[in-house]
Amino acid sequence: MKHLIIYIFLLFAFCSFGWGQKVKTVEYTYVYHPSHNESMEQAKRNAVNRAKVEALRENFGTVVSGASATSIISKNNITESKFVHLGSEGELNGEWLADIEEPKVVPSLEGGIIYLTATVKGKAREVVNNTIAFEAKILRNKPDVSFESSEFTAGNNIYVSFTSPVDGFLTIYLLDGETAYCLLPYAGNKEGVQTIVHGREYKFFSRKVYAEDENPDIIDEYTLTTEGNHQDLNQLYFIFSPQKFSKALDRFKNSTDGTLFPRMLSWEDFQKWILKIRRADKEMCVQTKYITISPRR
């Protein structure tokens, strides 16, 4: 009987944990009214973001919080990460894991006023883990935090400063609307993930400034480019966990003009991968940052 009670208790604990981590399919349609100073691209991103926020709030509610308001924006078919703060409305009690379908934004004009109807559908879950407060900064042209920026021009070099309060493992992906590029771990790293020592500031993508435990011979450096004469909006995913995990299955692809690209996989395959690993690892934290790349004048 004693063993039976223990087994029942363990089963109950497992089921309770599984319920807290249950992943749901959520969707929402939101009508957004752009402000006069927003560009159409900004308005579309904000419309998709608000639709995801409302989907999370409707399904998981909010937790009253005194935290200052922040927001995470999204563009077209790019996934946002972790919960979003809503100012006085409180903190969302859910997190968006991955898109199932590409978000759709339909503009309309009524009475001389533009409206954007955004529809999103994805996988989400209740927030049950504590966020690890790591710090990630994107640097332009020089591996120094004073050069932090989100605006780049074709031909600029990109670097990253990263610090975590706990030991763990990190991978970094850059996403455009169609493809996910693996920037870290480096191509020469055989472990499939970058090891992080707590409290140490790392400067990635530089062969001149690097951590003492890094091998400069395998460091990859990156120069940003654009296609055509239009401005590109890309997103960097910083994926960190105290538990070891492996990056997605990505591959090198030959370009027609001889340009060397990082390992890559499709946007859809990346979404499937990140959904799978986040579902399995409750301690995993994902931070996303946007960068714009303008054509060289």
Could you report the average pLDDT, rounded to the nearest whole number?
Answer: 80
* DSSP summary: helix tally: 3
Q: State the share of residues found in helices, binned by percent.
A: 10-25%
The N- and C-terminal alpha carbons lie at a distance of 78 Å
Number of strands: 16
Q: Roughly what fraction of the amino acids lie in strands?
A: 35-45%
Described by strand count, sense and barrel closure, the largest sheet is:
7 strands, mixed
CA radius of gyration: 21 Å
Query: In terms of per-residue confidence, which ranges show pLDDT below 50 for 5 or more consecutive residues?
Result: 1-20, 64-90
**Element order, helices and strands?**
HEHEEEEEEEEEEEEEEHE
> Outline, from the CA principal axes?
globular
Structural class: alpha+beta
Please summarize what this structure is.
This protein has 297 residues and is of the alpha+beta class.
Show the helix and strand layout.
Elements: H1 2-20, E1 23-32, H2 40-60, E2 62-63, E3 91-92, E4 94-110, E5 113-126, E6 135-140, E7 151-153, E8 157-163, E9 168-175, E10 179-184, E11 194-196, E12 202-204, E13 222-223, E14 232-241, E15 263-266, H3 267-280, E16 285-294
Parallel strand pairs: 7-16
Antiparallel strand pairs: 1-5, 2-3, 4-5, 6-8, 8-12, 8-13, 9-10, 9-11, 9-14, 10-15, 14-16
